[in-house]
Specification:
It contains 9 helices and 8 strands. With 297 residues, the chain is α/β, with parallel strands linked by helices. The chain has a single domain (23-296), classed as Zn peptidases (Aminopeptidase), CATH 3.40.630. The strands form 2 sheets. Strands 1-2-4-3-5-8 form a 6-stranded mixed beta sheet, sandwiched between helices. The two termini are 32 Å apart.
């Protein structure tokens, strides 16, 4: 080996060591397949057959990547006189690792498309391609990856149920699955970072910093958006915009520093038009790559 080649190799190895672990490839097409698969079951409203079918699909998929998969069952009232059993789905990766990251999304969909421009659709259920399926799809792909290449942290992936049948103006009626999860946390569970993904599939993606995330976990928000900037992912916009009541608030109240990555400027939110054709693999890939950056940098 010549001295010149040796110096080049030394420089490359040194650069690799300084930058840390190589970030694995995120397969956005595989993630989009998971989005479409969830939507094929139909609206995932608690108490319906499609809800149970999707639950089984999520559990079976996660079990391909870790044996540590469990369900937290609980009953909630969807509307007066109508209750259903709901399920938080929990998957733990590398449980012996003390440094941990919590990744989460809700997997249920809204029973009523009550923000649809056509009043005739207001009692129809929402398919929820972006509002639910997109975040879950990204995390299923990340589960596959962290099973192959161990990240710098142990990872806990949680799919929350019963997030989306609340009443506007009544915050206590939303995000019931994450509330149950937060109430059941063991005292020694202290993830360093929590990331919630919601409404992230929009083909016209714009990811501003959410106000509560920035107020209570600013260091994580800045870290995540800095990683996006380093990767050249321009859909992460470093401006604080929306104030969203979402699953991350229950986790913040429980002492978990959790942020919400959300594209709340989505015109199909809570309408019958929240369908896979409004989403894109690239949008899923944008978010998935940044989350992998957090796990592996």
């Amino acid at each position: 080996m010549s001295i010149q080649i040796g110096l080049v190799l030394f420089a490359l190895l040194t650069l690799s060591a300084c930058q840390g672990q190589v970030i694995p490839e995120f397969d956005d097409q595989n993630a989009f397949h998971h989005l479409e698969k969830q939507c094929e079951f139909g609206p995932r409203v608690p108490g319906t057959e499609s809800h149970l079918q999707c639950r089984d699909y999520l559990v079976e998929t996660l079990k391909k990547y870790t044996p540590h998969v469990s369900e937290q069952a609980f009953r909630e009232t969807i509307e007066p006189g109508n209750s259903a059993v709901c399920y938080n789905i929990i998957a733990n990766f590398h449980p012996s690792e003390t440094r941990r990251i919590l990744l989460c999304a809700h997997w249920d969909t809204r029973p009523w498309a009550d923000r649809d421009p056509d009043p005739a659709n207001h009692k129809k259920p929402v398919l929820g391609a972006s509002d639910g399926a997109s975040g879950v799809a990204i995390l299923l792909e990340i589960a596959r990856i962290i099973n192959i290449v161990q990240p710098n942290y142990g990872v806990d992936i949680v799919f929350f149920d019963a997030e989306d049948f609340g009443t506007y103006g009544n915050n206590n009626s939303w995000a019931l699955g994450s509330k149950r999860f937060a109430q059941s946390l063991v005292k020694n569970y202290h993830p360093e970072i929590g990331i919630l993904l919601d409404l992230v599939g929009d083909a016209d993606q714009q990811l501003y910093m959410e106000q509560n995330s920035y107020k209570y976990a600013r260091h994580i928000v800045n870290h995540v958006w800095n990683i996006a900037d380093e990767m050249g992912i321009e859909t992460f916009i470093p401006e604080v915009m929306y104030d969203v009541y979402d699953d991350h608030l229950n986790l913040l109240e429980a002492g978990i520093p959790c942020i919400d990555i959300i594209d709340f400027d989505y015109e199909y939110w809570h309408t019958v038009e929240d369908t896979p054709d409004k989403c894109s693999p690239q949008s899923l890939g944008n978010v998935g790559k940044v989350v992998l950056g957090v796990l592996y940098k």
